[in-house]
Amino acid sequence: MSQVIEKVKSAYDIFVEASEAAEAAVRACRPTPMVVGTPTTFFGNEIDKTKPTYFVEGGVCGFASVIIKPARGQFVTLLKSRGVGRKSYYSGWDVASWEFAPSIRRDQSYERACAAAAGAVEVLQSYGINAYVDSRID
Predict the structure, then answer these.
(1) What is the pLDDT of residues 27-54, one digit of tens each?
(2) Helix or strand holding residue 16 (H, E)
(3) CB atoms within 10 A of CB 42
(4) Residues 117, 22: contact at Cβ < 8 Å?
(5) Helix (H) or strand (E) holding 80
(6) What is the torsion angle, in degrees rounded to the nearest 10, for the CA atoms of residue 104, residue 13, residue 136 and residue 131?
(7) Is-cis flag, bond preceding 70, omega within 30?
(8) What is the DSSP string of 100-114?
């Protein structure tokens, strides 16, 4: 009887794989652009065309992060040792989406941030790490 031995990935290898997945998700993301301007009425949806308008290619502004609960284990220990992430306000370990996908470091696109976080979470969950996406619109 032959025995199959699976190679266990190191925490660093998992981080690299999650980062690659996050960057791939950002490249595949196509945010819905928006036009921002002054409304014709106080609570109106119509834009006053006589005033300046701005095209926002990245769509709605916001941010996303990956929450890992509980904040222990080899993966979180690696993140802490490298200064990646911070203690979550609610509990667990909070890693900003741009820490997995540095290409969006200065990007304000909510959709790109969510895509990066979701890409990383998918990989982390595949290795049994309890992680989920947390996001907010600015």
Answers:
(1) 999 999 998 999 999 888 899 989 999 9
(2) helix 11-28
(3) 5
(4) yes
(5) helix 74-81
(6) 170
(7) yes
(8) H-GGGTT--BHHHHH
